[in-house]
Amino acid sequence: MKNKKILIIGQNCFIGSNLFYFFKKKNLKVKLISYSDFFKKNFFKKDFNYVINCSSNLNFVKKKYDKKFDHDLQISKKIKYFSTKLVLISTRKVYKPKFNIKESYKKKPNCNYSKNKIASENNSKKILKNKILILRVSNLLGFSNKKSRKLHDTFIDIFIKNIKKGLIYENKEIYKDFISIKKFSEIIFKLIKINSNGIYNVSLGKKVYLYQLVKWLNYYNNKQTKTLNTKKNFNKDCFTLNNHKMMKKIKINNSIKELKKECLELSKLLFK
After folding, report:
1. 167-170 — which CB contacts under 8 Å span 24+ positions?
2. C-alpha span between 94 and 107 (Å, rounded)
3. Half-sphere exposure of residue 257, counting CA atoms within 13 Å on the CB side?
4. pTM for the whole thing?
5. Which among 82, 92, 166, 221 could bridge 46 via Cys, Cβ 3.0 to 4.6 Å?
6. How far is 76 from 86, CA to CA, in rounded Å?
7. What pLDDT is attached to residue 27?
8. Which sign does the torsion angle of CA 208, 220, 184, 160 carry?
9. Residues 24-47: pLDDT tens digits?
10. Residues 48, 7: contact at Cβ < 8 Å?
């Protein structure tokens, strides 16, 4: 693994910056750049073993599919004739929300972003064949780097915005699948280590009820808060991703107990 050279695209994003610092701690040869820098003349070299794309843009997220806004596709074209593999970070939103969703289940995207991600997966696979690792990721928990710009808020970002107003939104009926950015980084590290390709759900694979999650994140908060039911416009879809395929591939601890520990650490950083 130490001989592998990794390029992360997405210099100012939540996932990219966290991955970079995780890999640096592992003493890997890793470089973090912006999407625009990747296409500068003579920048890309064939000795990169993996390119991890964490970049995107608002047109891709919000509008109908257009190839020119598909970063994964444009990167695929650039590395097509090299041995370099692409790590394409996709989303659980390509599936219809339900319990225990497997990779083989029929896709049913219901927003432009998820529809665009399916198109991106398919178009990139046509170009790179088996030189692609597609990760369909559940909800990520963690802090962004201070300089990071985000295209959309994570659950913890929304939690922080509400807690500053002294409000907690919870619902004992809603569950989703969450995974910490630290665990996510470890999973990518392990998959790259064994030269994986194909499609994997990256998730905890268990029900995490929102009231539990909020309780963990708010653990070290000594200020009084007002508890309310989730807002009408809150995404109330319940789902878990089946992660058996991933867990068979790599040996890793991945439990609710560990997620709780990560959330308590986040709470400590937030309120202490």
Report:
1. 167/225, 167/226, 167/228, 168/214, 168/218, 168/225, 168/226, 168/227, 168/228, 169/214, 169/227, 169/228, 169/229, 169/230, 169/231, 169/234, 170/210, 170/211, 170/214, 170/227, 170/228, 170/229, 170/230
2. 6
3. 1
4. 0.94
5. 82
6. 7
7. 87
8. positive
9. 999 889 999 999 999 886 666 678
10. yes
CA distance 87 to 197: 9
User: Strands, DSSP E only, in the chain?
Assistant: 5-9, 29-33, 50-53, 85-91, 132-137, 139-141, 167-170, 175-176, 178-180, 198-202, 208-209, 226-229
Measured distance CA(143)–CA(160) in Å, rounded: 10
Least confident of 2-16, 143-157, 175-189: 143-157
3-state secondary structure of 32: strand
Question: Which ranges of 93-209 would DSSP assign to H, the alpha helix?
Answer: 112-128, 155-163, 181-193
Q: Any idea which residue has 């109908």 for tokens? A: 64
What three-state secondary structure class fits 93?
A: helix
pLDDT single digits (tens) 181-221: 999 999 999 999 999 999 999 999 999 999 999 999 999 99
What is the C-alpha to C-alpha distance for residues 245 and 151, in angstroms, rounded to an integer? Answer: 29
Neighbouring C-beta atoms of residue 66, cutoff 10 Å:
11
Whole-angstrom distance, CA of residue 69 vs CA of residue 50: 22
Number of neighbouring beta carbons within 10 Å of residue 125: 19
Query: Could you give the CA distance from residue 170 to residue 215 in angstroms, rounded to a whole number?
Result: 9
Here the tokens at position 56 are: 């995107």
